[in-house]
Amino acid sequence: FRSYFNWLLDNINGYIPIMYEYAEGFRLKPYSKLLATIPIPINTQKKPNLNENDKIIFFHGLTRERIKGSLLVKEAFDELRIKYKDVADFIVEGYMPYRDYISLFETVDVVVDQIYSVSLGVNGVLGLSKGKVVVGGGEIEFLKEFNLNESPIVSIEPNVEDIKRKLIGLIERKDELLKIKKASYDLAVSLHDEGVVATKYMSTWNEL
Fold first, then answer.
1. What is the pTM (predicted TM-score) of this model?
2. Cis (ω within 30 of 0) for the bond into 30?
3. Beta strand 88-94 with 133-135: parallel, antiparallel or unpaired?
4. Secondary structure of 43-107 in the HEC alphabet?
5. C or N terminus of the chain, fewer CB within 10 Å?
6. What does DSSP say about strands 88-94 and 56-62: parallel, antiparallel, or unpaired?
7. How far is it, in rounded angstroms, from Cα 190 to Cα 35?
8. What is the DSSP letter of 130?
9. What band does 64 get if pLDDT is binned at 50, 70 and 90?
10. pLDDT category, 203, cuts 50, 70, 90?
11. pLDDT at residue 52 greater than cutoff 90
């Protein structure tokens, strides 16, 4: 695999990363064919229904649990579920058909994404496009990668106490959730919209 990888890097015109994590290793190498990072694309044409539930619904989707930090999220959810049972629900689900996953995804308020990442993966970007409060990623490295001064993403440390603290903060600021949801969708449109991303790819291609 390493041999093939080196051959590939020697024979391509350029390498386009999709996030900080995919770019930084090549900056450190350094790799002369590294090009500007272009974010993950998503369809933002359907404006989300920014529903407000009676209870705040927190959701963590299960895939590759060790890599995503799901054990930490589950532990935080289990503790908060008891204390805040009257004002919040905490759902951990996964390993289901995509159609069912999206159907569930549409009903929640807060998506707790990856714990160990400083950027957003596809699930986090999906959360933005659906007008959800996204927890995880959004660190300073993410902001710098895309020349952002701020974002609505709630960043967290990879430990249970910080996860709990950030989620409690959202419960205590329930009246601000609609504003955060709107900002999430706005970020999806400005940064991740598939048309915006496609234009960046075409521009990069034409400059090579």
1. 0.94
2. yes
3. unpaired
4. CCCCCCCCCCCCCEEEEEEECCHHHHCHHHHHHHHHHHHHHCCCCEEEEEEECCCHHHHHHHHCC
5. N
6. parallel
7. 20
8. T
9. confident
10. very high
11. no
